[in-house]
Amino acid sequence: MKNYMFLVLAVITFTAQAQEKAERQTLIYEAAVARLNTHPSLEAAREGVLSYKHAALGAGALPDPMITLGLNNYPADGSGGFDRFAMSSKSIELSQSIPNFGVRASSVEAKEALAAQASIAANYTRAQLISQLNTAISKQKRIDAQFKLTQEDKKLLQQEAAFWSGRLESGESVLDERSRVDAELSQIEATYAFLDAEKEESDAELKRLIGTNYFIELPELVAIPWPSDIPLYMVLMAEKNVQVARANQRGAKSAFSPSYEMGLSYAQRENSGNFDGGDLVSAKVGFTVPIWAKKSQKPKLHAASAAVKQAEARLRDTQRIWQKKMQTMNAYIKRTVLTQKALERKKSSIQTQVLSLQSAYESGGELHRLIAAKRNLIALKMELAELEAEYISRVSQYQSAFQKMPQQASQTGE
Predict the structure, then answer these.
(1) Residue 70: which of 80, 61, 82 has the closest Cα?
(2) Contact (Cβ atoms closer than 8 angstroms) between residue 267 and residue 282
(3) 280/81: higher pLDDT
(4) Integer Cα distance of 245 and 117 in angstroms
(5) Whole-model pTM?
(6) Partners of 264 in the β-ladder
(7) pLDDT per residue over 213-225, tens digit each?
(8) Collapsing DSSP states into helix, strand and coil, what is residue 257?
(9) C-beta neighbour count of 163 within 10 angstroms
(10) In the sheet where 89-98 sits, what is the strand order?
(11) Under a CB-based contact definition with an 8 Å cutoff, are residues 112 and 56 in contact?
C-alpha cells in the first residue's frame, strides 16, 4: 500500500513539474516576443513614424510673421530731425506671408502618407524580427535534437566496432568492416564540431534578437492558405508611394494659384512749427502672379505627373513580384510538409524493421544488421529534425509578409 501511494505521489509530482515547465516555456516565448519591441531596428522604425507625423503637423502651418522697424525719409546728411521734414517718421510694420493653400495641403497629405508608410514598415520590421526569432529557436531545437541523435549513433558505432573487433580476433576477414566503422566514428567527431559551430551561431543570433540564448518552446505554426485576401506589407508600402506621388501632383497643380502677403504699418511723425506731425497707418496686400509658369510651374507639374505614373507602375510590379514570391514560398511549404509525411511513413517502416531484427537477433541473428537498421532510423530522425526546422523557417518567413498573422495573434499581441 505504501509503495502504491509513493507511486501515485511521484506521478502527481512529475505531472505538475511537466505542466509547470510547459507553462514556463509558453511564457518565455511571449516574453521573447515582447523583448523584440525594444530591438534597435524596431525603435529606429518607430522614430521614423514620429518624424513624418511631426513633419506633417508643421507642413500646413503659416510661416512666422515679420516685424519691421524703420526710419522713413530721414535726411541723408543727418541734419535736423523728425520734426524738420513732413515725411520723416519712425515706423513699425507687421507683415504675414500666406503661402499657397493648395501647396501646403498637398504637402501635409504627402507627409501623412509617408507617416502611414513608415508605420507599415515598422510593423513589417516587427514581423520580420518574429520570423527571425522563430527561425533561431527552431534551429536551436534542431541542433539539440541532432546532437542527441549523434550521441546515439556514436554508441551504436562503438557497439558495432566491438562486434567487428571480436570477429576479427576470431580470425574472420572483416578488417574492411572494422575500418569502415573507424572512419564513421571519425565522421561523428566532425559532426560534433559542425553542430558546435552551428550552436554558437544560433546562440549569437538569439542574443542579437532578444539578448539571451535561453531554450524557448515555439507555438504551433500553421501556414495561411494561399491565395489570401490578407494584405501584404510590401504591396501596402507601394500603395503609399502612389499616394505620396498623387499628393505631390496636386501640389504642383495648386502652384498655379497665388500665394499672398498682408502687411500693416504704423508711422510716427514729430510736430514742428512748419507742420502738424500726426501718425500714419498703411496697409498692403500682395499676391503672386504666375508669369513664369511655362518655365517654372509647368515643368514641375509634368515631373509630378510622371512620378505618379512611375509609382503606379512600380505598384503593379510589386504586386506581381510578391504574388510570385508568396506562391513559391507556399509551394515550398507544401513540399516540406509532404516530404515530412513521406519520411514519417518511412520511419514507421524502419521501426518495424528494427523490431523484426531485434527479435531475430535475440533468436541468434547478426548484430550488425540490427545496428545498421537502428542507424538508418537515426539518420532518418536527423533528416526529420532538419525538415521540421526548415518548415518553421519557411512558414515564419511566409507569414511575416502578411499584414496580420492570425495563428500567432495570442503570442504576439497583434
Answers:
(1) 82
(2) yes
(3) 280
(4) 13
(5) 0.83
(6) 94, 283
(7) 888 889 999 999 9
(8) coil
(9) 18
(10) 66-72, 89-98, 260-268, 280-287
(11) yes
CATH 1.20.1600.10 fits 27-62+101-256+294-405, yes or no: yes
For residue 344, give the amino acid letter.
E
Q: Which three cell numbers stand for residue 302?
A: 509634368
What's the CA gap between 106 and 254, in Å, rounded?
9
Give bridge partners of residue 71 from the DSSP assignment: 90
Q: Which tens digits make up the pLDDT trace of 263-295? A: 999 988 777 656 666 788 999 999 999 888 888
| Residue type at position 407 | Q
For residue 205, pLDDT over 60 is answered with yes
Determine the Cα–Cα distance for residues 128 and 141; give it in Å rounded to an integer: 20
- What are 115's three cell numbers? 507617416
3-state secondary structure of 96: strand
Beta bridge partners of 94: 67, 264
Place of cell 509617408: 114
Residue 120: count other Cβ atoms within 10 Å of its Cβ: 21
Amino acid at 147: F
For the chain, which residues make up each domain, given as ranges?
27-62+101-256+294-405, 65-98+259-292
What sections of 170-296 are H helices per DSSP? 175-210, 233-254
Cell 509532404 belongs to residue: 338
Compute the distance between CA of residue 356 and CA of residue 333 in angstroms, rounded to an integer: 35
pLDDT digits (tens, 9 = 90+) for 44-66: 999 999 999 999 999 989 999 99
Instruction: Please state, in angstroms and rounded to a whole number, the distance separating the CA atoms of residues 81 and 78.
Output: 8
Rounded distance between C-alpha atoms, residue 94 and residue 263, angstroms? 6
What's the whole-number mean pLDDT along residues 33-38? 94
Q: Residue 37 has which C-alpha cell?
A: 519591441
Residue 152 makes CB contacts below 8 A (sequence gap 6+) with 378
